[in-house]
């Protein structure tokens, strides 16, 4: 697959950043062009509308999820441990794309909502063969969701909402044992 033009990626990066930092309503074509340091015509060359920008962001998410699923399948500690461990956000491209697409879904984009459901379904399909039953699968997914959500609230204050280092390894081991 040929690499998309640099300007197109800059526009998507800017759109993603605006979605994350300010929300869907402020992610206008004008604001995105300005943040990407491209003319509005330059933006429109790549994305004719906000719907096209949304589609580009969803496409980015799908590619990152495909890469994540490939990494999950090769994880030495297995898909369950990989999923739980990587549910702690580290400001990686996948984390940023998930947040941006979530903001779009919260703003009413059915395309974004569908993409998030497909993402979760893909992760469930990859994990399902490695757990003993549906309740175990639900446990893995919900622990991952909880880590992801609490990570967004964790400002590294005294109340540490998300386990790190050895505490995270202990949690991962517990979930793997409980579900296998």
Outline of this structure?
This protein is mainly α. It is built from nine helices and no strands. The chain is elongated.
The whole-angstrom Rg is 18 Å
Mean pLDDT: 92
Percent in helix: over 70%
Profile the largest sheet.
none
Number of H- or I-type helical stretches: 9
Order of helices and strands: HHHHHHHHH
**Uncertain runs:** none
Shape: elongated
Strand content: under 5%
The total strand number stands at 0
What brief labels describe this structure?
single chain; 180 residues; 9 helices; elongated
Characterization of the model:
The protein has 180 residues and is mainly alpha-helical. It is built from nine helices and no strands. Helix 1 (6-22) crosses helix 2 (29-36), helix 4 (50-74) packs across helix 6 and helix 6 crosses helix 7 (110-127). The chain is elongated, with a radius of gyration of 18 Å. The chain starts with 5 loop residues before the first helix and ends with a helix. The mean pLDDT is 92.
Draw up the topology in text:
Layout: H1 6-22, H2 29-36, H3 40-46, H4 50-74, H5 78-85, H6 93-106, H7 110-127, H8 134-153, H9 165-179
Helix pairs in contact: 1-2, 1-6, 2-3, 4-6, 4-7, 5-8, 5-9, 6-7, 8-9
